[in-house]
Amino acid sequence: MSAFLQYLFSGLTVGAVYAIVAIGFTLIYAASDVVNFAQGEFVMLGGMLSVFFLGLGLPLAGAAALAVVITIVVGVLLQKLAIEQARAASPVTLIIITLGASNVLRGVASLVFDKQFHSLPAFSGSNPIAVGGATILPQSLWVLGGSIAMFVGLWLFLDKTLTGKALRASAANRFAAQLVGVNIGFILVLAFGLSAGLGAIAGILVAPITLTRYDVGALLALKGFSAAIFGGLGNPVGAVIGGLVLGVIEALAAGYVTSVYKDGVAFVALIAVLLFMPNGLLGSKTVDRV
Amino acid sequence: MNFVRTLLGCCVAVAGTVVIVPTAFAADPIKIGSVLSITGPASYIGEPEAKTLQLYVDQINAAGGVIGRQIQLITYDDASDANKARTLATRVTEQDNVAVMVGGSTTGTTMAMVPVMEGAELPFMSLAGSVNIVEPVKKWVFKSPHTDRMGCEKNFADMKKRGFTKIALIAGTDGFGTSMREQCLKVVGNYGITILIDQTYGAQDTDMTPQLTKVKNTPGVQAVMNTGASGQGAAVLTRNYGQLGMTGIPMYQNSGVASKAFIELAGPAAEGVRLPAAALLVADKLPSSDAQKPVVVGYTQAFEKATKQPVSTFGGGAYDGLMMVVNAIRKANSAEPAKIRDALEQTRGFVGTAGIVNMSPKDHLGLTVDAFRMVEIKSGDWSLVD
Q1: Nearest neighbour of A135 by CB, restricted to B201, B214, B244
Q2: A–B interface: beta-carbon pairs under 8 A
Q3: pLDDT tens for residues B221-253?
Q4: Does the pTM exceed 0.90?
Q5: Min Cα separation B207/chain A (Å)
Q6: According to the 3-state scheme, what is the secondary structure of chain A?
Q7: Contacts of A110 in chain B (CB under 8 A)
Q8: How confident is the model at residue B7 (pLDDT cuts 50, 70, 90)?
Q9: Closest Cα partner for B271 from B243, B247, B236?
């Protein structure tokens, strides 16, 4: 029993990391039908900039806040300088642009920072909490709590505010949204800025557990993207559920089957879901309904 | 036709200069080629190597060069990609006309370049870990750092001394981890040690508590050993080991994690962890009677002064490789590849950062297990065990 609980905690910790990255994908996709492959780099920037500012002597909270602000600026610049310039292009072209942007950000980060791994201090100590013979780190609770808070905030924003509704409207039908007075340009800047901010927060929350380096974005993006697809791209609830389920499957596979096939089992589950539910566990109903 | 004629003229002109230059200047530079993983996943290995080579080539040139000639270092970055390394090796041998190659940061890139260097009949000093590079012996291939098998042997010998006979093995699925796991399985029987449980993890995994929980729940495990080195894996594994409160089962790591960064990243859980390390790592703790002391202290000071970075065994391996090659050129009194090769094979009593090297036609590495020092992490620093 304690072993099962430990696998579950492990899965939830890893899954929360996936979920928190998946949420960032969700927002830009919901607004523009673009999968932003530079999302992983936002996560990396959040972590690395915090490490950098911490090294300059700032307190953790200040370093984190500054990192989030700078990452938001990077996100907005990415939209303004790269995506907006190609606004007539198809989503596939835009996705390729984000891939390029992710390479550029990674390259710049390797020059501005360095190529070593770094860690952030855990927010509330690193003494594991014992529950029923298993242990969980306080930082894992931060990540879990953070992903839930982000998902609730995002859901409230998309569902309850006028701006959020405008954002969903522009995703459903850009032309119609424009006709009823939605400022598409502003909406897209907002989506990229928010997404970058969420990514940066994710990067800061996970850095004490997963460590961070200039190139961690690629793998986080891959896993987070899988989680987003798993849960249904464009749906914040799906992103969280997809991330957690994927993480728990991986941990249980490592615990009960063999660690060699851990990733394999997770991806087989992903393929199975997509075969039977092509829209993911929760589909993208939020967008269709508008 | 005009184009073809121009092209032909061009070739003749180029060929002409190539032929004339060596006869015109007897003291033209000796070219040393170097293909390293300066960027990409193995950049933490290739970067200090590239900096070390440049630093010492400059130093040698400032002191008048070797056998009266300057050294020209031609460095390429393979971006940690074995395919690219092979292409660059071809360029080094066919276009740059180097006399010798020092490079190959990873086992993967080295093995990709071996056929090219063997075909071109140029001496190749590899800086990578696997024992497969020099076993079986290849005529033109040498290597400077310890092998993964020696890491296994050093750890197992220490376990035997402490009376551990039943252990758990955890392997990274990266190249280094997989290769070292195979070597460990080969030699573990020689030490009367049995592996009760054998686990793996991906180099970029962020949580290994499931694997460690299985180890913890296996009765009779007296020690746990990790063979994975690349990325954050080893540090995360050690943290998880601390999280699960497994300090009653001593942990052994491998030489690939031997850097100060590992202690910092793994945090308090690293206390008591043992690993085989090069003398370079414990330079300031070696007794002054130690033959390697002046070499490792000298290298540490020079590298840290020039780069403002802490030393790593990878840069040390590059120092050893370059110095053995330069010594061989000096001994052969020639920059002819075949003569350098013969002189390299006769390297005896070379004191490097890795150990004291005695090569032979049957041994193109020349190091023994004793070259490793068993260290334990105490109060956030290395301490010598034996």
Answers
A1: B244
A2: 77
A3: 999 999 887 667 888 899 999 988 888 899 999
A4: no
A5: 7
A6: CHHHHHHHHHHHHHHHHHHHHHHHHHHHHHHHCCCCCCHHHHHHHHHHHHHHHHHCCCCHHHHHHHHHHHHHHHHHHHHHHHHHHHCCCCHHHHHHHHHHHHHHHHHHHHHHCCCCCECCCCCCCCCCEEECCEEECHHHHHHHHHHHHHHHHHHHHHHHCHHHHHHHHHHHCHHHHHHCCCCHHHHHHHHHHHHHHHHHHHHHHHHHHHCECCCCHHHHHHHHHHHHHHHCCCCHHHHHHHHHHHHHHHHHHHHHHCHHHHHHHHHHHHHHHHHHCCCCCCCCHHHHHC
A7: 39, 43
A8: very low
A9: B247
CB A147 within 8 Å of CB A240: yes
Which residue shows structure tokens 């002597």? A57
Give whole-number Cα distances, A236 to A16, A158, A267, in Å.
Answer: 13, 10, 21
Tens-place pLDDT, residues B157-195 = 999 999 999 999 999 887 778 888 999 999 999 999 999
Chain A hits for B207, CB-CB cut-off 8 Å, are 10, 13-14, 209, 251
Give the residue from B179, B190, B117 showing the smallest Cα distance to B148.
B179
Give the gap in angstroms from C-alpha A85 to the nearest C-alpha of chain B: 30
Which residues lie across from A136 on neighbouring strands? A129
How buried is B7 (Cβ within 10 angstroms: 0-12 exposed, 13-18 middle, 19+ buried)?
A: exposed
Q: Residue B37 has what pLDDT? A: 93
Which sign does the torsion angle of CA A96, A100, A103, A109 carry?
negative
Q: What are the pLDDT digits (tens) for B88-138?
A: 999 999 999 999 999 999 888 999 999 999 999 999 999 998 888 998 999
% pLDDT > 90, chain A: 26
Q: Write the pLDDT tens digit of every residue in B36-73.
A: 999 877 888 899 999 999 999 999 999 999 999 999 99
Q: Please name the fold of domain B149-277.
A: Rossmann fold (3.40.50)
Question: What 3-state class would DSSP assign to B248?
Answer: coil
- Sign of CA pseudo-dihedral A233, A236, A237, A242: positive
Q: Where are the domains of chain B?
A: 30-146+296-368, 149-277
Is the pLDDT at A289 greater than 60? The verdict is no
Pick the CATH number of B30-146+296-368 from 3.10.310.30, 3.40.50.2300, 2.60.120.1130, 3.20.170.40: 3.40.50.2300
Neighbours of B322 (CB within 10 A): 27
Q: For the domain bounded by A2-289, which CATH number is listed? A: 1.10.3470
* Average pLDDT score over residue span B354-371: 92
- Say whether A14 and B206 touch across the interface (CB within 8 A): yes
Is residue B173 within 8 A of residue B203, CB to CB? The reply is: yes
Residues making up chain B, counted from first to last = 386
ipTM of the predicted assembly exceeds 0.90: no
One DSSP character per residue, B276-325 reads EE-GGGGGGGS-TT-TTHHHHHHHHHHHHHHHSS---HHHHHHHHHHHHH
Q: Which of A21, A73, A85, A91 is CA-nearest to residue A193?
A: A73
